[in-house]
Write a structure and sequence with these properties.
Structural class of chain A: alpha+beta
CATH superfamily of chain B: Transmembrane di-heme cytochromes, Chain C
Shape of chain A: elongated
Largest interface: A-B, 47 and 50 residues
Order of helices and strands of chain B: EHHHHHHHEHH
Oligomer: heterodimer
Radius of gyration of chain A: 27 Å
Strand order of the largest sheet of chain B: 1-2
Distance between the termini of chain B: 25 Å
Number of strands of chain A: 11
Strand order of the largest sheet of chain A: 9-2-11-10
Radius of gyration of chain B: 19 Å
Order of helices and strands of chain A: EEHEEHEEHEEHHEHEEHHH
CATH architecture of chain B: Up-down Bundle
CATH topology of the largest domain in chain A: Alpha-Beta Plaits
Structural class of chain B: mainly alpha
CATH architecture of the largest domain in chain A: 2-Layer Sandwich
Number of strands of chain B: 2
Shape of chain B: elongated
Number of helices of chain A: 9
Largest sheet of chain A: 4 strands, mixed
Helix content of chain B: 55-70%
Distance between the termini of chain A: 83 Å
Number of domains of chain A: 2
Helix content of chain A: 25-40%
Strand content of chain B: under 5%
Chain lengths: ~300, ~210
């Protein structure tokens, strides 16, 4: 058993139960998009706490910097300029791992224990077990994991599992100057979001709401959105994410079905041999050949 | 090595080597592929020096198999063209499986079952190669929808092909006197007369 708060609830490529006697509180990070000012303090705090330094990129004419998530950038701010009711809105979304309750990455991963889900809901990569196949990228509905060019392993936000294990909030939450990032139990975060959504509705955002998509069983990183009816406005946040049916097929029914079929074909051969006997050249044919030869 | 001067040559040394290049790469691909497919087979990763080495090697083995299979394909494709007699053979295959080959139509170098297997394997290798490239993240970074489709195709076709090869190997074990054709290329006259009479006539003129 690891630290109590890090009890493992699910483990990749493992067909038996993980230790599940003990229950812990589910945690969540709440990202209130409506109070985010896009300062990137969270990005800086993430780099600092996790000791990762991405290559310095180049300015591509927009605020997004770095342009995308990478093995060394586990969270990035994505800026969208959207026109709503004749007014410009600057929608800024902190992107990173959503820590799904039903994680596509974990479902797709073939390496035992390379991806785990703690009892508190955090989905974590254990890179020492990662083989670098990239199936997690194939499985993720949010396009989050990235393979490192340096070591070929996959990386993503850990929700600062090391900090959470000792009762601390993730580094990004600690650094946020406006309170747009909140951390606590999932229940607490939902209550807090409720209050924020009420406030937004009062201010004219009739469709304000919580993004906790049920298609992936809910997430342990949730957003408060002013336009919860159209999540895709926020730099293509999926409207209704779920594990792709292709991945569900590949990592679901196909596995036992194919394994059973292959085993049956092998067994059919064995029993055919035992029951019908080998197909030998008949003595009749041998005699005929001898006869032909002697002519 | 000459065993019995009367034996018939079925495969040249180069054809045998070619078959084994395909066979070895297939065995290694199946073992590593199964380990990647289902946790039940994960211990097979140890045969390759661990999961990471297995992940690195699998696609290169795939390229090796695709290339060596392509040569086999080009060498044997005309010999495997289906004829009307082959279809008759396929229609009666139940009798053969039941252990009675007396009424089976006369066969050339290959019977209808072997020929269908040849074409099925050719399609499998092609699909595995294309879908495998789609999954090869060391060199390719394709849209995730394509990768997902590739993963399903790759897994399904691979499981199917493992089934086909099981049948192929079993047939060789079941029909006595066959495996030596794969090892040293020759078969006895009686074997040829019983299982491939058309080919026997053609070679011996009898």
């Amino acid at each position: 058993m690891a630290l109590q708060s890090l009890d493992i609830a699910r483990r990749s490529a493992t067909t038996t139960d993980s230790p599940s006697v003990r229950r812990t509180t589910e945690v969540a990070k709440l990202i209130d998009v409506s109070t985010c000012i896009g300062c990137k303090a969270c990005q800086a705090a993430c780099m600092e706490w996790n000791d990762i330094r991405d290559e310095v990129g180049s300015n591509s004419g927009v605020y997004d910097n770095p342009r995308d998530l990478s093995a060394e950038s586990w969270t990035v701010m994505r800026y969208a300029e959207v026109e709503e009711a004749g007014k410009l809105e600057w929608l800024i979304r902190k992107d990173g791992c959503m820590h799904c309750a039903d994680p596509g990455c974990l479902k797709a991963c073939p390496a035992p224990g390379a991806i785990v889900q703690y009892a508190n809901g955090i989905v974590d990569f254990h890179e020492e077990n990662c083989i670098g196949c990239g199936y997690c990228i194939t499985g993720c509905p949010f396009n989050v994991p990235r393979l490192s060019k340096k070591d070929g392993k996959a990386y993503k936000c850990t929700l600062c599992s090391d900090r959470v294990a000792v009762g601390q909030a993730p580094a990004c939450v600690k650094a946020c100057p406006t309170g747009a990032l909140q951390f606590g139990s999932k229940e607490q975060m939902k209550d807090y979001a409720e209050h924020r959504i009420g406030d937004l509705k009062e201010r004219g955002f009739a469709n304000a709401g919580l993004y906790d998509p049920p298609g992936v069983g809910g997430t342990h990183v949730m957003y408060v959105l002013h336009h919860a009816d159209r999540p895709s406005l926020y730099n293509n946040l999926p409207d209704d994410p779920s594990i792709s049916p292709m991945v569900a097929l590949w990592k679901g029914v196909a596995k036992p079905l194919a394994t059973a079929t292959m085993a049956l074909v092998g067994l059919a051969g064995l029993f055919h041999y035992v029951m019908k006997g080998p197909n030998e050249v008949s003595t009749e044919t041998e005699k005929e050949v001898e006869k032909e030869e002697s002519v | 090595m000459i065993r019995d001067p009367k034996d018939l040559q079925r495969y040249t040394a180069s054809e045998r080597a070619n078959h084994w290049a395909v066979g070895m790469s297939f065995i290694l691909l199946a073992l590593s592929g199964l380990a990647l497919f289902h946790p039940l087979f994960w211990p097979l990763a140890n045969l390759f020096g661990g999961g990471t080495w297995m992940r690195i090697l699998h696609p290169y083995l795939g390229v090796l198999m695709a290339l060596s299979f392509l040569i086999i394909f080009l060498r044997f494709k005309t010999l495997n063209a289906m004829t009307a007699t082959d279809w008759q053979w396929v229609d009666r295959v139940k009798e053969m499986v039941n252990g009675d080959d007396h009424n089976m139509p006369e066969q050339g170098k290959y019977n209808g079952g072997q020929k269908l297997l040849f074409w099925a394997l050719s399609v499998c290798v092609l699909l595995l190669f294309v879908s495998g490239v789609m999954l090869w993240r060391a060199y390719f970074d394709l849209p995730v929808g394509m990768v997902r489709l590739g993963a399903v195709i790759h897994a399904a076709i691979a499981a199917f092909m493992i089934g086909l090869i099981t049948v192929h190997v079993y047939a060789a074990i079941w029909v006595k006197g066959t495996i030596r054709a794969m090892w040293y290329g020759s078969v006895t006259r009686a074997w040829a007369r019983q299982h491939h009479r058309g080919w026997y006539r053609q070679i011996t003129g009898k």
